[in-house]
Amino acid sequence: MPEKHQIVFYPVGNGDTSQVVLSQGRRILFDFCHRKKADSTETPEIDLKKRLKDELDAAGRDYFDVVAFTHADEDHILGSTEFFELQHAVKYQGEGRIKIKQLWVPAAMAMESASNDQQSHEFVILRQEARHRLLEGKDILIFSRPQELIDWLVPKLKERGEAANARDHLFIDAGKLVPGFSLLTDGVEFFCHSPFIKHYEKGDFIRNSAALVFNVRLQVGINTFDYLEIGDAHWEDLEDIVRITKWHKNEDRLAWDLINIPHHCSYKSLSDEKGEKETDPKPLVKELLLAGKSDSYIVSCSKPVVDVKESYDQIQPPHIQARKTYERNLKEVKGRKFLVTMEEPNATKPEPLVFDVTTGGVSWTKSALIGASAVVTSRPSRAG
Fold first, then answer.
1. Do the Cβ atoms of 334 and 356 come closer than 8 Å?
2. What angle (nearest 5°) sits at the alpha carbon of residue 335, between those of residues 378 and 283?
3. pTM to 2 decimals?
4. 17-49 confidence digits (pLDDT tens)
5. pLDDT at 381 over 50
């Protein structure tokens, strides 16, 4: 069978769960949002726990190579502490839980503060897991290294009789490639766009701004293709990414064949003004949209974005004004399609959006189980 990677987006409402499945079998999961109502077959949201377990079973696995939480908002971590095996406490271990070989988190997730009545909240449990793995010195990467986290870590290392720099290899800065993957051996590399150290400079942070953002570059044969994985970044964060990336002459890391747009098609990822009929994007955000390549795709991990009168006054995302902006700019770069996770093949029973990455490019397809043989129902691949 020809070499092929896959990128998958799961229909979980206004929430995020996506997966990169490499041709050699390694699996990288971004975020996890299982809504309890999805246990019922009468709701449109997918039963994420069952779906992912079925896919892992079909691949003969009980683990993900990487689970990356872009940030700690509920719609990116919901149900995760019931699904995954966590190393820091026996109560989160046992048969049926899915193992995480390596955990990727922004530094913010290891620094979250919590009140007494929040101690059972999932973001607190994941904070404890991140801190445990960091102290143990294995199975984790932390993105960015704010002084507040270092000030917490160094005394802990001293108590263990270890040097202050003993965990430096577990911290990844923006503008760097993530170790453990390469185009040569895996057909993929992960370039970290965010978070920046500036997100922590004032002694506080905003989850969405301090979230993980990656350029995922996939190689098949001699051809490479780019996927932009963006959490819930606001327009200011995206302008920072464009500005800094250009300053470092890494413009190629802004180009995309596939982009997961931020914050469930919110206009706030484009501008501070929604606009009456369409959102006018800020200049550097516009540059990012126009960095899309020919035959590219845009994915909105959100509820359906319907063009009806009531939608134009909607406060919470998704916003129809934002969709119109994305579609217009996609047309300008001769892209293929704007897709919404909760719309395909229909809003009543949506299925995961599956993209094949082959020598011919990135193409939208469909398959029974991710990693199994795909039955192509979209247009054939074209160079991306």
1. no
2. 150
3. 0.93
4. 999 999 999 999 999 999 988 878 889 999 999
5. no
Q: How far apart are CA 38 and CA 130, in angstroms?
A: 28
Q: How many CB atoms lie within 10 A of CB 276?
A: 8
Task: Dump pLDDT digits (tens) for 236-291.
Answer: 999 999 999 999 999 999 999 999 999 999 999 999 999 999 999 999 999 999 99
Q: Which token pair is 320?
A: 């129809």
Domains and CATH numbers, the chain: 5-375 (3.60.15.10)
Alpha carbon distance 340, 184 (integer Å): 33
What span, in angstroms and rounded, lies between the C-alpha atoms of 203 and 335? 41
Read off the pLDDT of residues 296-325 as tens digits, 9 standing for 90 and up: 999 999 999 999 999 999 999 999 999 999
Let me know the angle formed at the C-alpha of 21 by 286 and 335, rounded to the nearest 5 degrees: 30
Alpha-carbon gap, residue 101 to 210, rounded angstroms: 23
Cα 185 to the chain's mean position, in Å?
Answer: 23
d(CA 99, CA 318): 33
pLDDT value for 201 = 61
DSSP 258: E
- Residue for token digits 């971590």? 77
362, 384 Cβ separation under 8 angstroms? yes
| CB-count burial class (<10 Å; 0-12, 13-18, 19+) for 338 | buried
Structure tokens at 220: 């098949």
Task: Give the residue from 328, 266, 336 showing the smallest Cα distance to 296.
Answer: 336
What count of other Cβ atoms lies within 10 Å of the Cβ of residue 291? 20
Residue count (the chain): 384
- In this prediction, residue 371 has a pLDDT band, given cuts at 50, 70 and 90, of low
- Given a contact cutoff of 8 angstroms between Cβ atoms, the answer to whether 71 and 109 are in contact is yes
